[in-house]
Amino acid sequence: MKKLTLATGLALAGLGVAALVYWPSGEVQANRQAALQAGAAADGMPRVNVVSPKPFEADSMLQFSARMAPSEEASLYARSAGFVQARRVDIGSQVKAGQVLATISAPELEASLASARAAVLQREAELMVASRNLARAQPLRSAGAVSAQQLDELQGQEEVAKANVKAAQAEVMRLQTEVAYLTVKAPFDGVITDRQVDRGDRVGPGDTRHLFRIINAEVIRVQVDVPQPQLFRVDTSRPAKLTLAERPGVPIDVRYKRSAQELNAESGTVRIEYEFDNSKLGLPAGLTGTLTVPSQGAGNSVTVPANTVTYRDGGATVVVLDENNAVQFRKVSLGKNMATSVEVVQGLSPADRVVINPNALLKPGQVVQAGDPA
User: Fold this and answer.
1) Distance of CA 341 to the CA centre of its chain
2) pLDDT of residue 18
3) Residues 243 and 192 in one domain
4) Cβ pair 78, 215 in contact under 8 A
5) Which residues on neighbouring strands pair with residue 295, listed in sequence order?
6) Is the model more confident about 146 or about 167?
7) 54-68, 209-223, 245-259, 324-338: lowest mean pLDDT where?
8) What pLDDT score does 139 carry?
9) Residue 369 contacts by C-beta under 8 Å, 6 or more apart in sequence?
10) Rounded to an integer, what distance in angstroms lies between the CA atom of residue 184 and that of residue 98?
11) Of 101, 75, 103, 70, which is closest to residue 88 (Cα–Cα)?
């Protein structure tokens, strides 16, 4: 019995030694638990592939969407009320500066002018009487037959008569101007592109509808909106080339003419205009095309794969990760489109990490797992 007890005790003692040897410490257990928790959390995060933007290797040319605008354009409105008596042109009519486009009939206006002219004659007669009365009274003042007050009143009457004459003459000039507006004339050489009146229509100064629209397309203005990052790369000393999809392989040489010299706060662009002689080409204004402009050096733009760009709220957007791998949606401005990549002229730098093929379920601030940048 003592032997059994001794053996049992030795066995228990051995188990205690084993427990002291193999039982992990509290610190080891904590590290293992933290690792297990981190692994479990990582397993629950979306995993994304990222890419670092590459500096754009600018070539010698830049391309922008362009619009062809006429060198002169005007919408003509009625300045005097009346009825259209005659319309002498229609859309497509070639006109010269000063050519009559339409005439407006306004008998009441012409009657007012005749009345105003008669009023001038009346006021001039009143002035003549006042001047003669003053001339008669002045010699009598020295003889004491006329008081100083009476003489002053006569002088005042003459001054009032002079002012009345000037007012009547001004009214005649005003009405003459309105009568002149009854004849609608072309302000410059051009072509009528729109007509919204016909004979018998009533028109007036308060109309929102114009009578005619006229443009001069002998010289065409080529308008482009240049983003800020590309603005200082545009070489304005050399001619650019305008290409139209309807005229492939037939570029048009255009020369720099002017710049708006102000950045549009909404679009982040500056309006630049080129011009070319259209007298022989006869191209219609309003066409759109592509303007290829010489570049004078590289800018700050970068390139990213095309599959990193999505469109949200009507604008180009990329998904980037911050230093904590949190998702951020960032608006960008795009430049040239290449075969598999796109130029980003504003919104990214080479230090950013951009998500490739961003999942539609990603949300701003969401933490994800990120692979090494490609």
Assistant:
1) 28
2) 38
3) no
4) no
5) 234
6) 167
7) 54-68
8) 84
9) 42, 45, 46, 47, 48, 325
10) 9
11) 101
Residue 220 β-bridge partners: 70, 276
Within-domain flag for 25: no
The pLDDT assigned to 2 comes to 44
**In this structure, are residues 64 and 334 in contact, taking their beta carbons and an 8 Å threshold?**
no
Instruction: Write down the pLDDT at residue 7.
Output: 46
- Hey, what are 83's tokens? 């009825």
Q: What is the pLDDT of residues 279-334, one digit of tens each?
A: 999 999 999 999 999 887 656 778 999 999 999 887 899 999 999 999 999 999 88
The Cα–Cα gap between 147 and 153 comes to: 10
Q: Quote the CA–CA distance of 118 and 74 in Å, as a whole number.
A: 37
Mean pLDDT taken over the chain: 86
Cα–Cα dist 272/221, whole Å: 10
- Placement of tokens 């020369």 in the chain: 255
Using an 8 Å Cβ cutoff, are 319 and 362 in contact? yes
pLDDT for residue 51 = 95
Q: Which of 260, 294, 328 is the last residue of a domain?
A: 294
* CATH at 152: 1.10.287
In single-letter form, the type of residue at position 258 comes to R
What's the CA gap between 272 and 276, in Å, rounded? 14
For residue 234, tell me if it sits in a domain: yes
Sequence-separated (6 or more) residues with CB below 8 Å from residue 295: 58, 59, 60, 61, 62, 233, 234, 235
Q: List the domain range (segments joined by +) for residue 237.
A: 62-71+220-294
- Please report where in the chains the tokens 């009568």 appear, as a residue: 179
Q: Do 96 and 197 lie in a common domain?
A: yes
> How many C-beta atoms surround the C-beta of residue 133 within 10 A?
15
Give me the pLDDT at residue 315, please. Answer: 85
The mean per-residue pLDDT over the stretch 155-177 comes to 94
pTM exceeds 0.70 for this model: no
User: Both 273 and 329 in a single domain?
Assistant: no
- The Cα–Cα gap between 189 and 98 comes to 8
Number of domains within the chain: 4
